[in-house]
Amino acid sequence: MAYIEPAPIKDKGNPFESMMSRFHIAAQHLGLDDEVYNVLKSPTKQVIVSLPITMDNGSIKVFEGYRVIHSNILGPSKGGIRYDMDVHLDEVKALAAWMTWKCAVVDIPYGGAKGGIKCNPREMSAGEIERLTRSFTQAMLEIFGPDRDIPAPDMGTGPREMAWLMDHYSRAQGMTVNAVVTGKPLVLGGSLGRTEATGRGVMISALAAMEKMKINPFKATCAVQGFGNVGSWAASLLHERGVTVVSVSDLSGAYYNKNGINIQKAIEYRNNNNGTLDGFEGAEKISPDELLLLEVDVLVPAAVEDVITEENAPKIKAKLIVEGANGPTSAKADAILNDNGIMAVPDILANAGGVTVSYFEWVQNRLGYKWTAERVNRRSDRIMKTAFDKVYETAQQYDVSLRIAAYIVAIDKVAKTYKFRGGF
């Protein structure tokens, strides 16, 4: 499967405010002064564009596109572009801020950005999507750039759209500019290891946490909610390292086998069954809600947002939660998990493997040289393990959860850089 950024945020309230609630707690622990607090909470740039597109039937339809640059203090901004009918400014603002903290927590020299177009790509032809992508790129020519703002795939987009974006930007510059976008096809400068990057980061985070908790992977059980790019790779890589994956799920439902699911067979079945596990016979079907409450060592929510809430958090029996999706745990559920002694590796750390390998793709494009998959994986694993150790030490130092510790690490890095650069 092609890589996309981890699952969407569709917070029932305001997604930007949800992110800010954690930001505020971390800022208090750091004693952040008002100047830096106000700079870091406010997006640097918000761009809204109208995109008139000629549809296949000859009619003109106008789409609305967004690009939010939350921060460029650490370096050029980085973040995906999503095509979805639910795209709106507050969602894009929240995701742009998340990207700032995600890049900072794994010590990558990027700021955070996000983009989107309000459309339904499932109801559009390839030609219509191409015209829309090129029109959006044209509107963003002064925003995008390998040293300014670097987009990537997200929900509803993939390597195909990134190839069109790179081509249109390159035509405008009069030369090929591979480094303007990541998540490209391999032949256009994409990186080996990119597809499995986020799932691999989840695996590294899970094993690092299990080591701290003295959980033996070869005796551990795991449930993975979501069997898309992130979930299936996380399940496969954890299985390779001895973890027994007893349950997985997708839109068709959840599947459970107490003796362990054959992950490779499940992936093959999904790939040959229109991308769904519907009818999979290697496990019994259970409800998606039951998966979250299974008595397992590790729970990996890798599907959608707000699946762990104040209602079901008291019933969760997993010892460790590793967030493959963005925002799978609501703010109110955090305290309940902490009180119950459940360690949760937060999304801005656990699913940062994707942006790490995006950074590697950009570096390779700038060098004009390709790395082997082994080198990509080795360097990505090291970055993820180092980031986990830093967050874990910070959690011990401040006596806070890993989630708040990750925000403390990220905000502290951006704030110190802001101060060294001289502020405003």
Descriptive overview:
The protein has 14 helices and 12 strands. The protein has helices spanning 15-30, 34-41, 89-105, 126-139, 159-173, 197-212, 229-240, 263-271, 288-292, 331-339, 347-350, 353-367, 373-398, 402-421; strands spanning 45-54, 60-69, 77-83, 111-117, 149-153, 221-225, 244-250, 253-256, 284-286, 298-301, 320-322, 343-345. The protein has a 7-stranded mixed sheet with strand order 9-8-7-6-10-11-12. It has a 5-stranded mixed sheet with strand order 1-2-4-3-5. α6 crosses α7. It starts with 14 loop residues before the first helix and ends with a helix. The relative contact order is 0.15.
Summarize the entry for a quick read:
The protein is α/β, with parallel strands linked by helices.
> Which outline best applies?
globular
Oligomerization state of this entry? single chain
Query: What proportion of the residues form beta strands (DSSP E)?
Result: 15-25%
Give unreliable regions as ranges: 7-11
Largest sheet: 7 strands, mixed
- Tally of helical runs: 14
Biggest sheet, spatial arrangement of strands: 9-8-7-6-10-11-12
Which descriptors would you attach to this protein?
five-stranded mixed sheet, 14 helices, 424 residues, 44% helix, globular, seven-stranded mixed sheet, single chain, alpha/beta
Topology record:
Elements: H1 15-30, H2 34-41, E1 45-54, E2 60-69, E3 77-83, H3 89-105, E4 111-117, H4 126-139, E5 149-153, H5 159-173, H6 197-212, E6 221-225, H7 229-240, E7 244-250, E8 253-256, H8 263-271, E9 284-286, H9 288-292, E10 298-301, E11 320-322, H10 331-339, E12 343-345, H11 347-350, H12 353-367, H13 373-398, H14 402-421
Parallel strand pairs: 3-4, 3-5, 6-7, 6-10, 10-11, 11-12
Antiparallel strand pairs: 1-2, 2-4, 7-8, 8-9
Helix pairs in contact: 1-3, 1-14, 3-14, 4-5, 6-7, 6-12, 6-13, 12-13, 13-14
